[in-house]
Amino acid sequence: MGKRCGIAAGLALLFALGGCSDQRRVDGRIDLSLWRHQAGDVEESAGRYAIARFEASQSKWHITPQSLPQGGYTQSIVAASLAGQLPCLMTVDQPMVASFVQAGHLRPLDGLIPAAVVAQLNPAAQGRYQGHLYSVGQFDAGLAIFTRRSALDRIGARIPTLDHPWSLAEFDDILGKLKATGAYKYPLDLATRDPKADWWTYAFTPMLQSFGGDLVDRATMRNADGALNGPAAQRFGTWFQSLFVRGLVDRREPDDRAFVTGRAAMAYTGNWWAPDYRKAAGDDLLILPPPDFGRGTVIGGGSWQWAISSTCAHPNGAAAFLRFLLRPDEIARMADDAGMIPVSEAGAALSTDFRRGGKSRAFFDLMQRFARQRPATPAFSAISNSFFFALQNIADGKDPHDALDDATDAVDQAIADAGSTPAPQPGKVRE
Amino acid sequence: MTQSRKRAYGRRIALLSSGPALFGLTLFLIIPFLLAFALTFTDQRLVATDSGRFVGWRNYERLLSISYVVQDPQPGVQGKPAFARVRDVTRADPVHRGFRPFSDFSWGQKRVTILAKDPVFLESLLNTFGFALMVVPLQCAMALALALLVNAGLRGQTFLRAVYFSPVVMSMVVVSIVWTFLFDRDLGSINKLLSLLSLGTIGPVNWLGGRATAMPAIALMSAWQGAGFQMLIFLAGLQGISQELYDAARIDGATAWQRFWNVTIPGLRQTIAFVLVVTAIAALGLFTQVDVMTQGGPQNGTSTVMFHAIQRGVREENIAYGSTVAVVYFAIITLLILAQQALQRRWSK
Description:
The complex is a heterodimer.
Chain A: H1 2-18, E1 25-26, E2 29-37, H2 41-57, E3 61-68, H3 73-82, E4 89-93, H4 97-102, H5 115-119, E5 126-129, E6 132-136, E7 139-140, E8 143-148, H6 149-154, H7 168-180, E9 188-189, H8 197-211, H9 231-245, E10 266-270, H10 274-281, E11 285-288, E12 299-301, E13 304-308, H11 315-325, H12 328-338, E14 341-342, H13 345-350, H14 361-370, E15 371-373, H15 380-395, H16 400-420
Parallel strand pairs in A: 2-3, 2-4, 9-10, 12-15
Antiparallel strand pairs in A: 1-2, 4-13, 5-6, 6-13, 7-14, 8-10, 8-11
Helix pairs in contact in A: 1-3, 2-12, 8-9, 8-15, 15-16
Chain B: H1 3-39, H2 58-64, E1 66-71, H3 86-92, E2 100-107, E3 110-116, H4 119-151, H5 157-169, H6 172-183, H7 189-197, H8 211-239, H9 243-251, H10 256-267, H11 269-284, H12 288-293, H13 305-315, H14 319-348
Antiparallel strand pairs in B: 1-3, 2-3
């Protein structure tokens, strides 16, 4: 706790001392500050080029971008807001949107971005909370099953399609046969070595949903009881545990190269691994939809998105930048430059990799069909952490029903606590 | 100058000299602690900008509440007594709302289950003290052994000293990641070595994945990482023991073991006390290794109090509750220290 808070306090002090004024001008243009999380060189430079193109496209606004480490990003935002020095534009991880809105950090985008522009975006790319739009995504990330055609051929498995993903029984059968070949100690790689709650929630909530459960009751968003520990969720928990009991998944993968090296026949991971996997498997690589566990295939939607801070002095300028980013040609550029999945049909059509017949089109189709957003609630961090611990305990042998009951109680309490602080008036902007 | 003026002058100088340190302590230790203490009575969130509302003792109540249920056996399958699921009982009964099973035992035919509102905190508390009991003797013994080795006047002892000290200057995160590889069940070197030495009779041990082995594994790795530091302190202590004492012991015909037991150990008494205290303090703050290697698992087997505080306070953004964990932990440790000092005073009388 000490170190993170220290950094946050330090940052707050820094910005308070820096005292950048609202009306800074650069080359006669009004300056807009922009914060983004550090997301790797490729995405970083793609973002830099997008800013350069925006500045070339008009003469009124200038953007000063700043990259902050992803680990302490949320804390930096909190510190900056305490010091009254929030940037105008910032990236926000979609599940955090509700929490930031509740804290009064974000400005609604309803009047700032034309409804027609918003309408062409996938629902998962729209960060909504309490009926208002607060963030928009220029791209998305998506999970799929990666495997080798040769591995499936060897056991005579059917290759699933978007219309007919594997069923639970089929998937279990295939994993069992892969294990029986003796070629793989653990046929399926679920990236269980990842110690972050984010990954476990992002990766396994869709499975829970496909079984018929959910993190919270989506109808009310008020409680998890029945959704997170009901019969469907218990079926999911029991199955999830059986993956480890049957030796189909390694409880703790030693590294993230199980699929590349051929130790695992199958990997359940995101589009960001596609380049490495293509290199390793070549034409043998198959990108497949996750199985349908009973209630249709589900993939988590909603990646890092763009938002405008409530203290931004020039929301029009910030909105101009967002409108620029949401142009189909810009969506296509980002998709091709950074390998991210476009969030609109028009954007995909203009992209080399994601247009019909493009090498990464599979991801776009998967997201169009199966994407479902994580719940928009200020209690998301608590929900995510509780679910993460329930899954870890289940994987380590705890009774799935007990583990899910624990998570449910924790989530219900977190939601009740979050609700006890008065929510800001919808649309009201803190000055 | 009169005596009293001299004394006042000395006091001023003392204040002036300790000023910078006091300022730092106040700013970074005392004020944050007072703030944390104040936070424990609110429902302050980490991300919210407004300060939380006053909620009284709610956080303490959630942290420390303990209860129990007694269950009669129901007719079970094949003559074995069966019991209703405790979670079903606690979730149905409003009296036990929010309680989770912590531990259970048999009482004749009945089953008694201890309930707690935050069983993970209690487990973490036990784990942390368990870790301290394992790591403090291990690490101090290792440090003393290394110090004796380095002090023995062998060739290349400067080199050895640097080697033994090198883990201390390595980042704990890096050390933890490396040891995670070493401890890996299927590919780790430790299991490979065990299998080789035992000619295959010792199967792969799931070091970090088993409840019985996870904490000892972390203790072993922590002792290895930290021993170099205590080694240096012991070295300084060893060099402070007069050579004449050894010479006298040798003339009296003492064996190496007798010299160690009757000269070295008494000579190091102050050093040993200091090293034990320093190591215990570090052990009670165990966090990084757990966060990197096990995330508190398997089934909370390695969850520690600091890890629990960070989980609740920072990762779940419930800073008020995280502060409560820290404040209660502080109180427990303070009580232990007071008890220890009282006992020491009684002994020395």
